[in-house]
C-alpha cells in the first residue's frame, strides 16, 4: 500500500507545463515592443502568411523581434491559447495582440497599422 503513495497525481496547486509555457510567451510579448510569432525566420519564412507579415513590418520600417514557432512545439500550441487565436503568424505590439496576417494587411492598407506603431511609440529599425 505504501508504494501507491508514489503514484499520486502531481499537486494541482503547483505550476503546470502549460503555465510555464504561457509565462514564457507573456515574457516574450511583454519584453518586446513588436513581436511576431511566425513559421520560420524573417530571412526564410516557412509559409506565405508569415512571409506577408514580415513584408508588412519591413515596409513599416519598425524594429521587431520574431519567434519561430516551428522550433518549439510548446510555443506553437501555447501561443494559440495565449491569444485565443487559432492561426500563426500572430503580431503583438506593446504587449497587445493585434492579429494575424490578414488583419495586419487590412490595417496596413488602411494606414491603421502605421498609425498604431506611431501612437505606441514603436522605434524605427536602425
UniProtKB/TrEMBL annotation:
<keyword id="KW-0001">2Fe-2S</keyword>
<dbReference type="InterPro" id="IPR036249">
    <property type="entry name" value="Thioredoxin-like_sf"/>
</dbReference>
<dbReference type="InterPro" id="IPR014434">
    <property type="entry name" value="Monothiol_GRX"/>
</dbReference>
<dbReference type="Pfam" id="PF00462">
    <property type="entry name" value="Glutaredoxin"/>
</dbReference>
<keyword id="KW-0676">Redox-active center</keyword>
<feature type="binding site">
    <location>
        <position position="47"/>
    </location>
    <ligand>
        <name>[2Fe-2S] cluster</name>
    </ligand>
</feature>
<protein>
    <recommendedName>
        <fullName>Glutaredoxin</fullName>
    </recommendedName>
</protein>
<feature type="domain" description="Glutaredoxin">
    <location>
        <begin position="34"/>
        <end position="98"/>
    </location>
</feature>
<dbReference type="GO" id="GO:0051537">
    <property type="term" value="F:2 iron, 2 sulfur cluster binding"/>
</dbReference>
<dbReference type="GO" id="GO:0015036">
    <property type="term" value="F:disulfide oxidoreductase activity"/>
</dbReference>
<keyword id="KW-0411">Iron-sulfur</keyword>
<dbReference type="GO" id="GO:0046872">
    <property type="term" value="F:metal ion binding"/>
</dbReference>
<comment type="similarity">
    <text>Belongs to the glutaredoxin family. Monothiol subfamily.</text>
</comment>
<keyword id="KW-0479">Metal-binding</keyword>
<dbReference type="InterPro" id="IPR033658">
    <property type="entry name" value="GRX_PICOT-like"/>
</dbReference>
<dbReference type="InterPro" id="IPR004480">
    <property type="entry name" value="Monothiol_GRX-rel"/>
</dbReference>
<keyword id="KW-0408">Iron</keyword>
<dbReference type="InterPro" id="IPR002109">
    <property type="entry name" value="Glutaredoxin"/>
</dbReference>
Amino acid at each position: 500500500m505504501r508504494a501507491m503513495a508514489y503514484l499520486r497525481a502531481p499537486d494541482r496547486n503547483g505550476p503546470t507545463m502549460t503555465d510555464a509555457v504561457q509565462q514564457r510567451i507573456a515574457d516574450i510579448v511583454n519584453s518586446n515592443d513588436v513581436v511576431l510569432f511566425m513559421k520560420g525566420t524573417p530571412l526564410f519564412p516557412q509559409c506565405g502568411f508569415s512571409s506577408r507579415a514580415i513584408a508588412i513590418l519591413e515596409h513599416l520600417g519598425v524594429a521587431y523581434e520574431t519567434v519561430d514557432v516551428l522550433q518549439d512545439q510548446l510555443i506553437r500550441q501555447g501561443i494559440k491559447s495565449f491569444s485565443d487565436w487559432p492561426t500563426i503568424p500572430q503580431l503583438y505590439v506593446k504587449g497587445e495582440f493585434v492579429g494575424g496576417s490578414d488583419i495586419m494587411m487590412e490595417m496596413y492598407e488602411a494606414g491603421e497599422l502605421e498609425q498604431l506603431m506611431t501612437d505606441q511609440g514603436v522605434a524605427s529599425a536602425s
